[in-house]
Amino acid sequence: MRQTLRRSCAACAKSKHSCDLGTPRCSRCIKRKAQCLYANQPLTAAPPAPSGTLTHYRFGSLDPFNSYPHTRLPRQQVQRLIHSFLNKIAFQYYPLDLSPTSNPFLVSWWPLALGDPVLFHVSLQTACLDAERLAQRGFHSSEVLMADSVALLRRKLEDTSLALQDGTMNAVITLATIEYGKGNTSTSKMHVDGVKKLVHMRGGINAVRQTSPLTARMVSWVSMLVMGHPQFETQDDDGIGHGIPPIPEWQLDPSARHEWSELAGADDQEVRNVFLRLRHVFARAQQRGPFPATRLHDLTCFVVHRLLLSAPNPTPAPPPPTTECVRYAIVLYMLIVQGPTYYSHAILFNTVLARFTAHLTQLDATPRPCGSLDLWFLAIGLVASAGTAHYPRFVARSGAVTVCLQLRDWHDVLGHIRGILWLETARGEHVFRPHWDGILGSAGPVRDLVVRVLPGTGGSVGRLT
């Protein structure tokens, strides 16, 4: 007669870690070269890792997941939600890695969820909300999962050792995104405040990153999107501190010479520093090949945090418009090149666009010779403002500057942009070029535009009417 209902091995149970129930030894004991003893031997061995997606599993046959935490939903529905999470939601949440053998939601998040009732319920809830939105028959099941998720989370937070686990942070930040998507901003921000406290207790976001890069990425990125501004500091340029770390390519060669001529009007040292280092990073990427998607996201997260954290208070003395145009243009450019990740960054993006447009309007108020920096501003503005009320203004301005600089085609435009700041990616040219093909293909309207936009400036950038 069995003395206990525990299924995990003795070593995992003692250390309070989830056990994958592998036989004859679980993966954690194999990794630690530890003795692996089961009080109740698993009925079946863990299935081999699939070579592709998990679509070949059939519900109603052998359960490929061996066991999972109990829920109030019917078993067949749970299995459908598991299937949806592993085949759809994991890749929607983490488009940085579309391989089923390396996507962290499959190889690290899901194993945690199988041993963590809170994270399991939250994970099912993401799949359930997706299914119920498509079915349009209400959200009964997801509401059941939400109620149980919150109840289980409160119980877990009573134990500090359990509260500080990666799985707990994953659950809390996911609950924040779910509530934010429902429009429950106050509840969403409450979850962000909670996960920030957990990160602080763990020793900072970089300490979290040491055990789970996925958790650190999600917490730092999603918390910024929910709150509308960065919630964590960054490390310094040498990678010292408890904040978000820079990527290795961020380091500069001390023997190299660096020019500042393009930023003659930008007197903010932080903006200059980021601009210089990004130019260095992009040049190295061009020599060594494109960035992996995860590395690009880490760079974007670091740069966006660094620039938004260092943005000055506009009162009482407004900052120089050139400086702020460069600041917000870099932020927009990094968000454009990266694309959406985990969760839509549209609200943050539109906030930054509004600031960029306001500072560009101030900059345009003073006539000056047009140059590559103006073209770079406009290229970013065109892409960022597409579909908004700002777009016609950027189109008009871009047409005028193409005449000033005597640009004939996209390759002329690209030459100027590359001279400022440009990362060679497959996405980049595809996103930027169509706007310029449309502008440069309208020679007559552009000539009429110059008469209105640049009357008597003699090749200078002037005030738009």
TrEMBL record:
Pinpoint the Zn(2)-C6 fungal-type domain residues: 8-38
Q: Which Pfam family is an annotated match for this chain, by its short name?
A: Zn_clus
Q: Which GO terms describe its molecular function?
A: DNA-binding transcription factor activity, RNA polymerase II-specific; zinc ion binding
Q: Which InterPro entries match?
A: Fun_TF, Zn2-C6_fun-type_DNA-bd_sf, Zn2Cys6_DnaBD
Q: Which UniProt keywords apply?
A: Nucleus
Protein name (record): Zn(2)-C6 fungal-type domain-containing protein
Protein species of origin:
Trichocladium antarcticum
